[in-house]
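batch_manifest entry 22 of 60
target: SHOCT domain-containing protein
source organism: Cellulosimicrobium cellulans F16
requested by: lab member K.T.
priority: normal
notes from requester: please return tokens only, no post-processing; we will run our own comparison against the previous entry in this batch. if the run fails, retry once and flag.
--- input ---
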Amino acid sequence: MATSTFGPVEIVAVAFPTDRIPAGVQASVLEVLAEGTVTLLDLAVVRRSDAGDVEVIEVTDLGDELEITDVELTGAGLAGEEDLDAVAAGLAPGTSALVLVLEHTWARGVIAATSAADGVVLLSERIPAEVVNEVADLALVEDRAARPSRRPPPHPTPPPNEENQMPIRRFGRPGLIGTAARTAVIAGTASATAGAVQRRQASRAQQSWEAQQAEAAQEQARIEAAAQQAAAQYAQPAPAAPAAAPQDDLLGQLERLGQLHASGVLSDAEFAAAKAKLLG
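--- output ---
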């Protein structure tokens, strides 16, 4: 039977483009801990050297590098090897990550009261700030679009009541959980780091460039084939008598090409390519 009395716990890994944790981040974490709404249970720093080697630094080995080390950890070791390996897999060479295991201390009382009332937690989902902002902005746009256009009233608008209050719109809107899941899929995994996203974007850019090159090569081949076909189709042999001068024959071919171009049979590119071939 479990004897621990922890509330909900969240593991957070924050990656940085250097091998050191910025002082501003440390100060922000300390401010949050001082408020008492969360408790720091475990902490570790994961680094990947320029050569690609991974190093996991425990709080006892950080020394004066982190001011957070002064905080007593009541759940040291909760972040297991599997967790730290997952964080390290997303780090690019020369970067680091601060791994925090945080207990939502504010929820202890709610969890205890729920358990005492034989209740269960049906849903507990951590929604990234980006997702919340996206859904909130979409809801604001929809509310403005649904609100009827009218002239400003001649007197101040009365406070909301049962008659004039806009209804809460829920149906048809994307949910927070679904949006968060789709965001995680797009990013690769819920714990994907900026380095992984950049590598994926670079791969897509390379694929797009290769596709453009292939399309350009196909277009060039089509123009050359059209020029050859036009030259072969409309080139007439010189009559036996009287023999036409080469210059006159060339002028005749150019004139026919011009007629084909003017009538729309040949495009600008095909006309230019055929003309260049004849003059070459």
